[in-house]
Amino acid sequence: DGLILADHRGCSAIFLPQVWDELPDSHDFVSHLLAKARIRPSYDWNDGEIDCQRYEVTAYAEY
């Protein structure tokens, strides 16, 4: 699945599901996504100020 993160300041980032191939560890995946969004890793996930959305994609190949 892909992941979208956004905080209350409007900082956000998205990773396509294919990024899991490069970052298979969930902690690494989220840490890199937080850095991309410029959200500090020490953010309190329980304060409700980060919106996290998961999504799926369908990949098609051209022949």
Strand and helix map with partners:
Layout: E1 2-7, E2 12-15, H1 26-37, E3 50-55
Antiparallel strand pairs: 1-2, 1-3
Please provide a written account of the structure.
Helix content is 19%, strand content 25%. By secondary structure, the chain is of the alpha+beta class. It starts with a strand and ends in an 8-residue tail after the last strand. The protein has one domain (2-55). It is elongated, with a radius of gyration of 13 Å.
Strand fraction: 25-35%
Task: Work out the helix count.
Answer: 1
The averaged pLDDT comes out at: 90
Query: Which residues form runs of ≥5 with pLDDT under 50?
Result: none
Task: Encode the helix/strand succession as letters.
Answer: EEHE
- Given helix and strand content, the structural type is alpha+beta
How many domain units? 1
**Overall geometry:** elongated
Taking the sheet with the most strands, its summary is: 3 strands, antiparallel
What's the assembly state of these chains? single chain
Kindly state the number of beta strands: 3
| Helical fraction | 10-25%
From the alpha-carbon coordinates, what is the Rg to the nearest angstrom?
13 Å
Q: Within the largest sheet, what's the order of strands? A: 2-1-3
Distance between the termini: 25 Å
Could you give a quick summary of the protein structure above?
This protein is α+β, with helices and mostly antiparallel strands and 63 residues long. The protein has one domain.
Give a quick set of tags describing it.
three-stranded antiparallel beta sheet; alpha+beta; single chain; 3 strands; 63 residues; AMMECR1 domain-containing protein; elongated; 1 helix
